[in-house]
Amino acid sequence: QVIVHDVNELTEKLFPIVEAMQKHFSAGSGTYYSDSIFFLSVAMHRIMPKEITQIIQVDLDLKYKTNIRDLFDEFENFPEGAVIGIAREMQPVYRHTFWQYRRENPQTRVGEPPPDGLPGFNSGVLLLNLEAMRQSKLYNQLLEPTMVQKLTEKYHFKGHLGDQDFFTMVGMEHPELFHVLDCTWNRQLCTWWRDHGYSDVFDQYFQCEGEVKIYHGNCNTPIPED
């Protein structure tokens, strides 16, 4: 069964919820009404019918090497308290974004590469447990403008990647809200940061062992042919 949702209607519902965070996680002025759609996943639990309990949200620049149905099994692996399944970011973009916080906290894991660091998240493949999101008092508190402001100030955070920035910042503070997907479920291919000042550490973020299930051709990167 396919249900089509009107983008304008969704944006109208989203805007009041995410307006305050847009200025922190959007390119440009960050307050455009249309920008709200880039925060759809953040508040999906507030605008979807209650009978919808789980959603997989994916970018368009993906190539599937396995049945997407297998990804639904990951919902069973969520630890208690987790509301969203998401893979790590595979470039040092957040090493860059959190530079000031990292300078003030030299021992931090924030922005460090896996397996021990917190490299941030990539929202190209998202598992949204809507029921858990609705019931999580902590997650809904974090959507409040005052909490968003508090965290952006703590981490000196200014991003431009929409929902991905929000999830990354929240994940630095509350990693327990996230089930980290294996990199093979979102094998990102973009290498932009390799050529923009981070060639020395790039491979620590970019490596991914295992058979790829989903390729992600982010930043217009060609996806390998079969």
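The record above closes out task 2.4. Task 2.5 opens with a second protein, given below.
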Amino acid sequence: FDPRHYLGTHCYGWPKTGPHRLRFLLESVKDLRETLKRKGSTLVVRKGKPEDVVCDLITQLGSVTAVVFHEEVKEIL
């Protein structure tokens, strides 16, 4: 969870993630974790800036050979 998603936006000051969306995200992550656990896997959940959290996870795991990510689409004004 990126803390920057809970701050006001630069355009209107509204948070990117409001209380209803946050509740949906938390329920979705909980369900995904439970589903993965039933299949013998797990889900790593962290709070922080992704560029820092991913680097820390790679260091902790030590045997990472690839990292895949997506970039948020920017608004065209």
